[in-house]
């Protein structure tokens, strides 16, 4: 489980692809890999992956076909920047919201504009997730815990404070770029309960 508070912006060093499977090698400057074991979970642009090998300042992780098809990781190229976060440790602070690293689907940037110090980013509303994306609710976009400013049937908006603009990759996204979405897990369970309840 993750919080959506990005620890580092890593850099994709190498990609090995065989059909719809990928092995990513990612460099990190801030994450202490000496205390991260093989088999530990790490969020890469909001996708929960498993560390399969590691060096002093880099690690490898495999992407299976399901993840290849549903997330933006298939579009990565060497040199690309990615958001990184280690799984929450027992007893650690929980500053964002419950993020599982289980991406629901991708969407595209529609617009972006400045509102004083905040960068407002507008995304296309995926019809399948419409009931789970609500104004003032939580969402993870490329692994970043954000509050939804506004949502309707066509689009939804989030705002990035200056710190978020500097410490993660989202501010660098342009119109048309693809991002990973994970809705609030509570919204998923509530929607499922509403679908299965008999009145």
Brief summary:
The protein is mostly beta strands.
Question: How would you explain this protein's 3D organization?
Answer:
With 199 residues, this protein is mainly beta. It has 2 domains: 8-86, Elongation Factor Tu (Ef-tu), domain 3 (Beta Barrel), CATH 2.40.30; 105-196, Elongation Factor Tu (Ef-tu), domain 3, CATH 2.40.30. It has helices at 65-70, 162-167, 185-196; strands at 8-18, 21-27, 41-44, 47-54, 58-63, 81-86, 105-115, 118-124, 138-141, 144-151, 155-160, 178-183. The strands form 2 sheets. Strands 1-2-5-4-3-6 form a 6-stranded antiparallel β-barrel. A 6-stranded antiparallel β-barrel has the order 7-8-11-10-9-12. Strand 10 (144-151) and strand 11 (155-160) form a beta hairpin. The longest helix has 12 residues, at 185-196. The model has no long low-confidence stretch (mean pLDDT 93).
**CATH topology call of the largest domain:** Elongation Factor Tu (Ef-tu), domain 3
Taken as a percent bin, the fraction of beta residues is 35-45%
Head-to-tail CA distance between termini: 34 Å
Instruction: Tell me which CATH architecture of the largest domain applies here.
Output: Beta Barrel
The overall pLDDT average reads 93
Assign an overall shape: globular
Structural class: mainly beta
Sequence of secondary-structure elements: EEEEEHEEEEEEHEH
The CATH class label of the largest domain is: Mainly Beta
How is the largest sheet built, in terms of strand order? 1-2-5-4-3-6
Low-confidence stretches: none
The tally of beta strands, per DSSP, is 12
Report the helical percentage: 10-25%
- As for the number of domains, it is 2
Overall radius of gyration: 17 Å
Largest sheet: 6 strands, antiparallel, barrel
Count the DSSP helices: 3
């Amino acid at each position: 489980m993750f919080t959506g508070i990005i620890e580092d912006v890593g850099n994709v060093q190498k990609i090995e692809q065989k059909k719809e499977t990928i092995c990513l090698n990612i460099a990190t400057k801030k994450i202490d890999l000496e205390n991260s074991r093989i088999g530990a979970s790490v969020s890469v642009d909001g996708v929960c992956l498993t560390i399969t090998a590691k060096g002093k300042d880099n690690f490898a992780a495999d992407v299976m076909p399901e993840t290849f098809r549903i997330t933006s990781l298939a579009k990565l190229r060497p040199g690309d920047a990615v958001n990184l976060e280690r799984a929450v440790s027992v007893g650690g602070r929980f500053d964002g919201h419950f993020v599982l690293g289980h991406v629901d689907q991708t969407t595209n940037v529609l617009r972006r504009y400045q509102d004083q110090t905040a960068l407002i980013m507008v995304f296309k509303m995926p019809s399948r997730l419409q009931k789970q994306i609500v104004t003032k609710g939580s969402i993870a976009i490329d692994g970043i815990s954000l509050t939804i400013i506004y949502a309707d049937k066509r689009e939804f908006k989030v705002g990035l404070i200056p710190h978020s603009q500097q410490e993660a990759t989202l501010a660098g996204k342009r119109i048309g770029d693809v991002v990973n979405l994970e809705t609030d897990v509570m919204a998923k369970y509530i929607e499922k309960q509403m679908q299965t309840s008999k009145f």
